[in-house]
Specification:
The protein is mainly β and 116 residues long. The protein has one domain: Sandwich (Jelly Rolls), CATH 2.60.120. It is 3% helix and 40% strand.
Length: 116
């Protein structure tokens, strides 16, 4: 499965963000293993001509009860910080990852920033 590369911010230092990755209908994974501070910012941009939905897929722990669907208006970027307990995979091939899927394969792009 494709993945997004996390940009890791350091206090008092400018950091170049990783390029946004196209959010596919089959999904991407986000690395949640290095979350010592517990804050990972997900940025989702919509370059399409209509609003599109991104879905954060529920995790496989006790807290993983339902997907989170986010509507992103065309021409905008949204940011969100999620609870790892609800969305992180704790076992299997994608252990330590969060999965995110797009409504289509062309409009939505994702960047990930690990906050200090």
């Amino acid at each position: 499965m494709d993945k997004v590369t996390n940009a890791i911010l350091v206090r008092n230092e400018a950091t170049v963000l990783e390029d946004a990755v196209a959010l596919k209908t089959t999904g991407l994974t986000i690395d949640y293993e290095n979350k010592s501070c517990g804050k990972i910012l997900i940025l989702i941009s919509n370059t399409g001509s209509a609003a599109k939905k991104a879905t954060i897929v529920k995790g496989d722990s006790l807290q993983g009860t339902e997907d989170l669907e986010i509507s992103v208006t065309n021409g905008t970027t949204v940011g969100l910080v999620i609870e790892s307990g609800r969305f992180e995979k704790v076992s299997g091939e994608n252990k330590g990852k969060v999965m995110i899927k797009g409504e289509d394969a062309t409009s939505l792009k994702v960047q990930v920033v690990e906050l200090p």
